[in-house]
Amino acid sequence: MNKNRLEAFSDGVLAIIITIMVLEFKLPEGIDSNALFPLMPKFLSYILSFIYIGIYWNNHHHMLHTVRIVNGSILWANLHLLFWLSLIPFVTAWNGENHFAPFPMMLYGVVLFMNGLAYFILQNQIIKIAGKDSNLSKAIGNAYKEKASVIFYSIAIGFANFYPIISGILYILVALLWLVPDKRIERIFTNDNH
User: pTM of the prediction?
Assistant: First the structure.
């Protein structure tokens, strides 16, 4: 099975997710800069979520660059990831609307955690088909970024009901950890081409 349809469908879904998030913005009530202040929580929530969608899009692209064969388990694992990504606009809007209240912050973390888990499942399905000696398997190595993300998300979810600001800081830290596209995969392909 060809991976091009998988990539095209995934890109389309991610574009729709970003569009849905930006459509949540309502025009300010007023014509001066003070009219923008009530929108700041929504805007900050949007920025972080946009960065997360961008991170998933970049790393998904890099990961699919390693794929030679697509089967049903990869298709379903990819749909599983897209499902969790599609919930980001909901938790983004809820967080922004409620000024990062404890329960919306916790649910935001749960959705981020499930996105990470779904990405990990997709990654493992690709490695399962390609083999343990595949480029993707070599690139992932000890998966330190993946493990650190799970730990930060878990701590953030736990803190959300008591100190939502700590949760927000941890969500930002995970985003910063992944902000640069996965260089591990780029290095493998650069080394293979020399």
Answer: 0.90
